[in-house]
Amino acid sequence: MKVVVEILTRTLFYIQVENDATVLDLKRAIEAQEKHQHDRLILMFKGALTCIIMNKDDSPLTSYGVGDNSHIYLLFCPLPPPPHPHNDNDDGFLPHFLWNSLESMGSDQQHSPFTGSSGQSE
């Protein structure tokens, strides 16, 4: 079957897969053709009545109602934040912009979001 895939930038492309293809087969075909990592892809199919996120990789496309010339929407899982350059133990908990904001405050604890106005921990 041939399906139309649309990225949120309104870019369209066509992908050819077998009639018995699974969601994972389609993701891998997109990866091979468009160079997007298959494990970051979120596929959504707009049926007649609802929008369905195709989240079971081992399910056949037909189980979601996908057929020849169906229109699939492609979204991407966000990448994990990069590790903070000054903290080797960064677990990715604080977003990068927050680290930068905290660093810009320097050692002045009066401005720390983790202490009270007196500079003492609450």
From TrEMBL:
<dbReference type="GO" id="GO:0005829">
    <property type="term" value="C:cytosol"/>
</dbReference>
<dbReference type="Pfam" id="PF00240">
    <property type="entry name" value="ubiquitin"/>
</dbReference>
<dbReference type="GO" id="GO:0043161">
    <property type="term" value="P:proteasome-mediated ubiquitin-dependent protein catabolic process"/>
</dbReference>
<protein>
    <recommendedName>
        <fullName>Ubiquitin-like domain-containing protein</fullName>
    </recommendedName>
</protein>
<feature type="domain" description="Ubiquitin-like">
    <location>
        <begin position="1"/>
        <end position="75"/>
    </location>
</feature>
<dbReference type="GO" id="GO:0043130">
    <property type="term" value="F:ubiquitin binding"/>
</dbReference>
<dbReference type="GO" id="GO:0070628">
    <property type="term" value="F:proteasome binding"/>
</dbReference>
<dbReference type="GO" id="GO:0005654">
    <property type="term" value="C:nucleoplasm"/>
</dbReference>
<dbReference type="GO" id="GO:0031593">
    <property type="term" value="F:polyubiquitin modification-dependent protein binding"/>
</dbReference>
<dbReference type="InterPro" id="IPR029071">
    <property type="entry name" value="Ubiquitin-like_domsf"/>
</dbReference>
<dbReference type="InterPro" id="IPR000626">
    <property type="entry name" value="Ubiquitin-like_dom"/>
</dbReference>
